[in-house]
């Protein structure tokens, strides 16, 4: 298939960027979106042009490295990661717009690569549990109710890709935070730091320049892991309880 | 934002209910208007309770608009470079128009208060001290009814998302079932409140209320 690609090119963080148009022929429907970009980069290199920089790592949908706003949708038209998006989701002759995540908290490093270390700092602020070192405790000594364990597992699938922020009209990272807060807050091990966690994470989130949540729901729709919107309710509930306790 | 929004939900529900008195005729409607002022007497002075409610509403309005401005500014700052191409996957029209809808309601509210409370403007030029006549004169003008109906459409959209959003912000939608209930509550309130409010202008224009 033949495609017209409109891709954001930006030399570095401080340089101004612009959309550039490329024609690409011979794209197979079985290629992943990233493989299609690989083909484009080989073509660019053979022409002596600088290849398009984009983030990727595992290419099997579990690491959260890949990003890309494809035709105005985070990770493209399917609910999956960009590496698991295949060219069969597009038609011959399509024009595809490819942009980096747009958020003040995710500054562009180069082309389509953004710096997502703001998420690391939010995790450092409270997205952890404190555990004693030494021999592993007996697994059954801390019972976890099954429904709570299942909910924790479901939301622990968050890979921190940032699609929630990218798709949010407010540029908020509430779904990401809510996933971590629900994951740790549902389990017994997460209880000692439960209320300081939510306060510290929200404070860091706001300091990173992410927007406030107005419950629009684009984040949950874009999430490749299907994290539901109720984790934001959980975040708000924990925050309310924490504020009531005077934290 | 959520708490002040819930105050307004309570207000529009009772305001809408009170307006339906228009169907009982001039005497009942004006009696109801007067009753709002004598409510709470003799413990409270004339119009006492009404002013307590008004102060509560004004405080809620300041909080509500203030929060909206903070959120809008944060959202603006959080995405300094806009997308060249943007497609929405699964969000309601109402959720994406809260700011414009809120602004529309605010502009309407200003006119509405000038029309019926602060100045009592009778657009038809008739008497202004009879609440029922003022209302009938206003809604007998087709363009006035149209403005009020447009405002009710904005209110319906605002309530549709606002109800759900308030419950979510207060942390009351932690399960899929609770979330669907909150969404349903948004639909019910939008239809009941905006629909109930619209009945009076429509039936005045049709001549049922005269």
From TrEMBL, chain A:
Keyword Oxidoreductase: yes
UniProt-listed GO biological process terms: respiratory electron transport chain; tricarboxylic acid cycle
Domain 4Fe-4S ferredoxin-type: 148-178
Entry's transmembrane regions: none
Cofactor: [3Fe-4S] cluster; [4Fe-4S] cluster; [2Fe-2S] cluster
Enzyme Commission number(s): 1.3.5.1
Keywords: 2Fe-2S, 3Fe-4S, 4Fe-4S, Iron, Iron-sulfur, Metal-binding, Oxidoreductase, Tricarboxylic acid cycle
The protein's name in its UniProt record: succinate dehydrogenase
Organism: freshwater metagenome
From TrEMBL, chain B:
Ranges that cross the membrane: 48-72, 100-121, 141-159, 187-209
GO cellular component: membrane
Keywords: Membrane, Transmembrane, Transmembrane helix
Coiled coil: none
The protein's name: Unannotated protein
Native source organism of the sequence: freshwater metagenome
């Amino acid at each position: 298939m033949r495609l017209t690609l409109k891709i954001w090119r930006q030399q570095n963080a401080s340089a101004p960027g612009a959309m550039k148009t490329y024609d690409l022929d011979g794209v197979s429907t079985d290629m992943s979106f990233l493989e299609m970009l690989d083909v484009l980069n080989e073509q660019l290199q053979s022409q002596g042009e600088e290849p398009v920089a984009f983030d990727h790592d595992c290419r099997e949908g579990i690491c959260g490295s890949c990003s890309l706003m494809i035709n105005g949708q985070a990770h493209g038209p399917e609910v999956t990661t960009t590496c698991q998006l295949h060219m069969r989701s597009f038609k011959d002759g399509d024009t595809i717009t490819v942009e980096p995540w747009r958020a003040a908290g995710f500054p562009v490093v180069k082309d389509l690569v953004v710096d997502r270390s703001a998420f690391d700092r939010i995790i450092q602020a409270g997205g952890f549990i404190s555990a004693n070192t030494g021999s592993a405790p007996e697994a059954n000594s801390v019972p976890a109710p099954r429904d709570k364990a299942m909910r924790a597992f479901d939301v622990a699938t968050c890979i921190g890709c940032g699609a929630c922020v990218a798709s949010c009209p407010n540029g908020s990272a509430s779904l990401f935070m809510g996933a971590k807060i629900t994951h740790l807050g549902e389990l017994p091990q997460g209880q000692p730091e439960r209320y300081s966690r939510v306060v510290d994470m929200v404070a860091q989130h706001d300091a990173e320049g992410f927007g406030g949540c107005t419950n629009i729901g684009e984040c949950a729709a874009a999430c490749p892991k299907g994290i539901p919107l109720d984790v934001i309710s959980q975040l708000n509930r924990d925050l309310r309880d924490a504020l009531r306790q005077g934290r | 934002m959520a708490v002040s929004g819930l105050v307004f939900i309570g207000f529009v529900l009772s305001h809408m209910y009170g307006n339906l008195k228009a169907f009982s005729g001039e005497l009942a409607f004006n009696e109801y208007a007067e009753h709002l002022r004598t409510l709470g007497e003799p413990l409270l002075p004339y119009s006492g309770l009404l002013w307590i409610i008004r102060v509560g509403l004004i405080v809620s309005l300041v909080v509500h608009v203030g929060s909206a401005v903070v959120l809008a500014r944060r959202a603006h700052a959080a995405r300094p470079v806009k997308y060249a191409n943007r497609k929405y996957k699964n969000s309601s029209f109402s959720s994406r128009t809260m700011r414009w809808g809120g602004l529309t309601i605010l502009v309407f509210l200003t006119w509405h208060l000038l029309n019926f409370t602060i100045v009592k403007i009778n657009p038809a030029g008739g008497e202004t001290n009879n609440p029922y006549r003022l209302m009938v004169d206003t809604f007998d003008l087709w363009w006035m009814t149209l403005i009020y109906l447009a405002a009710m459409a904005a209110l319906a959209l605002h309530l549709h998302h606002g109800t759900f959003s308030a419950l979510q912000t207060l942390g009351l939608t932690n399960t899929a079932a609770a979330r669907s209930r909150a969404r349903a509550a948004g639909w019910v309130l939008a239809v009941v409140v905006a629909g109930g409010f619209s009945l009076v202008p429509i039936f005045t224009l049709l001549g049922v209320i005269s």
